[in-house]
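Following up on my earlier message about Double cubane cluster. Here are the inputs again, as you asked, copied directly from the submission form:
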Amino acid sequence: MANHEKMWQELGLDVELHNELLKSIDRTFQQTVGAQKNRPEGMKYFDNVLHESHGGRVAELLDVKAKGNKVIGTFCIYVPDEIAMAVDITPIALCGGTNFSVPYAEKMFPRDICPLVKSTLGLAFSKTCPYAPIKNMAVGETTCDAKKKTWEILAGKVNFHVMEVPQKKEEPDIKLWHKEVREFKDKVEGLAGKKVESKRLAETIEIMNDKRRALQKLNELRKHDPPPISGLDALVVMQAALNDEPVRFTETLNQLNDELEERIEKGISPFTKGVKRIMIAGCPAVMGNWKVHWLVETSGAAIVGDETCTGSRYFENLVDETAKDLVGQLSALAERYMKINCACFTPNTDRIEGVVKKAKESNVQGVVQYILQYCHGYNVEAIRVDGALKQANIPSLKIETDYSEEDVGPLRTRVEAFLERLG
Ligand code: BJ8
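Thanks, got it. Here's what our run produced:
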């Protein structure tokens, strides 16, 4: 990493503090992901994506900009990347998963907002986020109160666009979302200084669908008993998906999937057959955050599915590739993204039914509902999710936590007791 110091200096980062941040993330990574046994060879690439997220990937984005193209920062999987990519804009996810930066946000923001928001803002405020100075525009959305109110503050400081994600999924809401998608197209066209062409949009739709297909395949392979890959490693792949160049990511993931098929044939797994199978449902675990996956898997279970935005919500549902003109393509994109079941929607029956369906498909014995502290949407919805799972005879455990390590002891006790209850 040392060879990137000049780049960080030129970007105006606090290099000393940034080095501390990297050390802190690396320490957590080594204690969790790095401490696993019997990992697939192909994971080396995805580990490296994480390690280079503040180095090599930043250098790549600077090259993108040197060629006259733009970079946008996003905070939610509702932003349709395909449209930005169609005008040569590179979207990059900016959500923070490290506890290191949380105190920097707490100096300015209330403490009682979710750690994902605080971590993200803390990185920007402490001058340790290399993407903050690179991005030409940030794109927020109206999914939760913490985010909505944060955008108002950031909008005065950086070029900011907010997409209105509706809170219901009825006809007027769907219409509103289609309009938002069309407005997003206008916005990125203005930023890039070029028009979205239908031919190029068809290509970027295919690129992102290919990426989703590869992730769906990984999800299928995890259904095997024993799974050929840990849930923690599958999470690393997902975290890389939000940062890496998509074509390269898909190619490498397809290679990993081939290796996993071989492992299944040869009976190679980090677990033994009959291991207790768990699905995670709820909030996303973005780069830097491996806490709950690590806790569950070091307590003797395998995570075989994730109903989160760093899981199935990101890759389920493809964009219809049959639309032939721009109007049809934008509409197909809006339809696909509207199917994401974030807890911001009311009622959210599709998500609740989806959790049960996925838990059955992955043949799990239990579901861990992962709730980031102060995320009221997922926290309150956990009651309905729990009820629906109970009806299907699937026990669930709700874990509400932040990014710190302080509650690891009590959480482990609760996870172990839950796993024991599964028989
Ligand atoms: S579509 S889950 S990526 S908003 S955890 S900041 S909701 S208080 S991250 Fe999300 Fe889009 Fe929804 Fe997915 Fe708010 Fe909750 Fe924090 Fe959250």
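One observation from looking it over: The chain is about 55% helix and 10% strand. Hope that helps, and feel free to reply on this thread.
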